[in-house]
Design brief:
Blueprint lengths: L7 E5 L4 H12 L3 E6 L4 H10 L3 E5 L5 H15 L4 E4 L5 E2 L7 H29 L2 E6 L12 H22 L3 E8 L11 E2 L10 H12 L2 H7 L4 H11 L8 E4 L1 H20 L1 H6 L3 H9 L1
Parallel strand pairs: 1-2, 1-4, 2-3, 4-6, 5-8, 6-7, 7-9
InterPro entries: NAD(P)-bd_dom_sf, Sc_DH/Rdtase_CS, SDR_fam, SDR_oxidoreductase
Keywords: Oxidoreductase
Family: Belongs to the short-chain dehydrogenases/reductases (SDR) family.
Length: 295
């Protein structure tokens, strides 16, 4: 890994997945990390034993705004300047929209969408006061491309994209930059840890039944390797390196499948939008249409 300038990072979801991998790489490179997770995993405890006071840890439930503010305030107060906030906490819920329980729906949106919003609101006063910083937010190819059976997960990631696109404009005046991370299928424990809704028989023979079958081991080895091709070590390395890129990239897409499916989705939307140009312009008020005609 290239040598990075000394920085302090604040990481959510640091107990597993991308949060843990980024934390591990940062510590190996001599950085300081405030690592938070819903529960402090054995892996985090082991890193704490290895790296001493360069790793600050706290339990954090991102769905509790008061707790988020308290932990953020404690981290900034005790560590001083925090340069990069990496918001990685999240999980996937699988099920048709009508299959999802009210509780699972609420929890999916609370963790994946409201959690990053709570975190951003909590860190902004500190970053603004210190004159800037970087927010790196985990999104997904699912923030651009629909996935059968993941409608509420998609909703959470589309929402993340919308929130941070807008917030980035607000924050730029204070030297706070934002990067969205959009990986495709990656070899973390994400798929194994997906929370599944109780299935309805009506969906058994459709595409959702196929998705469930694939997750249950019904996909051949070669297809699975190519469907879940992302290397979390490489992606984490690129996330860490992005903190040195100025200006901050608004979005980083990781994985060939993610790149191709996002590009295709954007192209289809652009073509559909272009086909509606006459309709869109024609629905303006008559006085505006007259002004346009006389221009």
């Amino acid at each position: 890994m290239p040598t990075q300038p000394p920085r302090t990072w604040f990481v959510t979801g640091a107990g597993s997945g991308f949060g843990l991998e980024v934390t591990t790489q940062l510590l190996a490179a001599g950085q300081r990390v405030a690592a938070t997770s819903h529960t402090l995993s054995a892996a985090l405890k082991e890193l704490s034993a290895q790296h001493g006071d360069r790793l600050w840890t706290a339990a954090l439930d991102v769905t509790e705004p008061a707790t988020v503010r308290a932990v953020v305030d404690q981290a900034f107060s005790e560590l001083g300047r925090i340069d990069v906030v990496f918001s990685s906490a999240g999980f996937g819920a699988l099920g048709a929209a009508e299959e999802l329980s009210d509780e699972l729906l609420r929890r999916q949106l609370a963790v994946n969408l409201l959690g990053p919003i709570h975190l951003t609101r909590a860190v902004t006063p500190w970053l603004r006061t210190q004159g800037g910083g970087r927010i790196i937010q985990m999104s997904s190819s699912g923030g651009h491309v629909p996935d059968p059976g993941m409608s509420v997960y998609n909703a959470s990631k589309f929402g993340v994209e919308g929130f941070f696109e807008s917030a980035a404009v607000e924050l730029a005046a204070f030297g706070i930059e934002v990067t969205l991370i959009a990986p495709g299928g990656t070899r973390t424990a994400f798929n194994a840890n997906i929370t599944q809704a109780e299935p309805l028989a009506a969906y058994a023979d459709g595409v959702l039944g196929q998705v469930r079958g694939a997750l249950a081991g019904g996909m051949d080895e070669t297809t699975l390797r190519h469907a879940v091709a992302g290397d979390p070590v490489k992606i984490a390395r690129a996330i860490v390196a992005s903190a040195d890129t100025t200006p901050a990239p608004r979005r980083l897409v990781f994985g060939a499948a993610a790149y191709e499916t996002i590009a295709n989705a954007w192209q289809q939307r652009l073509e559909a939008l272009a086909a509606q140009r006459e309709l869109a312009f024609g629905t303006d008020a008559d006085d505006v249409l007259a002004d346009r005609a006389n221009a």
